[in-house]
Amino acid sequence: MEEIKVMNLGNGDYEEISKLMKSLQKKRIEDKISDTMIIVEHEEIVTIGPKARRENVQVSNYPTFETDRGGGITWHGPGQLVIYPIIKWKPEEQSVRKIISRLEDWGISSLKVCGINSYKNDRMQGIWVDGFKIGSIGLSFLKWVSRHGLSINIDTPGMRVEELEGCGLNAGMHTSLKKLGYDRDLSGQKLDFSRLEKAFIDTCKEVLDRNPILENIIQ
Length: 219
Description:
The protein is an alpha/beta fold.
């Protein structure tokens, strides 16, 4: 089984992490590093993908950054777990739709171990709970090495997520687990960033078929 290095960067500026992802992607293409998973929490930023730019989507009252991942606009900020898998996908794995589905499965499996029933939506990619979208996925590829990744809204501030029309959905369709009443796991432990991070690491081997190797590099 392939290994995947886990880099927990703590709080990270989106633009700086974006540069890091590009550097790691290049190194992974050249086999200078193994598969790598970045775990980070961003300050508030709304990333604007190519689809949103083509459709001239306007975002007001939020800081923004143009990105090259697939999709429209996505909110990032405090109370959200973000995972960026820099993975060289094997020939038998090389399907964009299948990779996205696999990341959805990873999120669903991780939430399940915390006692939360989540699911896919046939019309809109991402991770859903109780009729609301709490997880987004957006990727870009170069020589079948992925960049960007997925996010899970755990306990986001105010109504910042809910007030944004993102990923082709009306305002109010995105929310966080806390606002849906999910603030504890099955054992009664607080469902926070650390708990959900552990759930993703624990399910990585089963869902992604890669063995996570942790590095303690929180900044």
